[in-house]
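Researcher: Go.
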Amino acid sequence: MHQFRDPIHGFIDVSPDEKKIIDSAPFQRLRHIKQLATTYLVYHGAEHTRFGHSLGVMHLVTKAYESALANYKDLHGQELFDEPEKKWYRQILRLIALTHDLGHAPFSHASEALFEDGLGHEDFTKKILCETEIAEYIKSIGRNFCKANGLSDKYNITPELIWLIYGEKNPELDPRYIMPDFKFLKGFMDSELDCDKMDYLLRDSHYCGVNYGRYDMNRLLSSLNVYKDETCSIMQLAINHSGIHALEEFIIARYFMFIQVYFHKTRRFLDNLLIKSIADILPNRRYPLDINSYLELDDSAILHRIKENYETSSHAKKFVDRSIMTCAYDTGTHSDSKDNQTYAFVLRELRNNLDCELFEDHPYKPAHKIHDIPFYEMYNDESSKGIPIIKTHLKHPADILSESVLLKSLKDKPINVKRIYVEKCYEEAAKDIVKKFMNTEGESDG
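Model: Structure:
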């Protein structure tokens, strides 16, 4: 067993076979893909990468899986899976978590607008899983797993199986897909309670030097359980009622991180400038489709080429020189129709009175996407929507909406900000125009 020392989770154990994946060139590339794009130019500590995050998610998904199964056994007096299945699913989950971010473009989500139409980083993750050296390492893990546990090929693990469970759009159509088990497994990585979010909230907070994304991780993990209906058609990651407050803290943490970090006004401007700078250096202004050419691109390679383009691209020059426009006006976090009307009037005033470039930005996150949680919906057995809240004295789970007044208050509150930026030399003039307009509006309202 090998160990990685992580600033968030302490020691992270990996098997020799898993370490082969980590040591591979496609995975090592993640050392040079920043988790938060240009945020390091605002919060200078935010130099962390997809490499550490991927290890952290693998560590957390293991703990979450084991905790949920242990709590299920304590509640029902029997195991959720037999021993071979339990071990098989554990190894599958670890591989999904370890490889889930392999396809990220340079600077992560910030530059995804430069993919060919209809493609996302997940499409490149699939290619890396199935078309690079990692495919053979996963197959080797599958063979060794079956041999070490004396199991048949039924328990084999392949890159195609990993993708079927985690990334396939309509996996239920594949005869290899096991319902509801595989859907349950995916919940640990892509759901209301997934370990991807659990890791990046703590990791982003740590490296940005803020407290907004912190929550009681150990309490949340220890509260995880499994809801399985009587027909065995539903198997869903759930939470014990005793963990409600940890869940609330978890959701609020992501809400604050969006407001204070992910949608930070300077970071948003720099991300936009970065996209334009990268587009200027790419053939056809798009990332290559060839997986080998794509894997040659990381943050360092992109920054080098942007600097080479300094004299010929105005965007590159501005990015390298960190020429940041100033936010002269914003609507606030939860703008409504009235705020939007005021925004339009302010924009008109600035255009009419300033002879300079304006930049508009509209960060938006729907209320139910603040944590990808449909907490605005009551839990429903048939649809499997909502978060099942396990109460030992009830036959059926409760739902988060009825259990949390705090989260219920957020259900109609999307993050909806509109901002207007001006060149720095016009900052004072722009703010005077805005101030004069707003005071006039206030007087007319009165």
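Model: The two ends are 71 Å apart (CA to CA).
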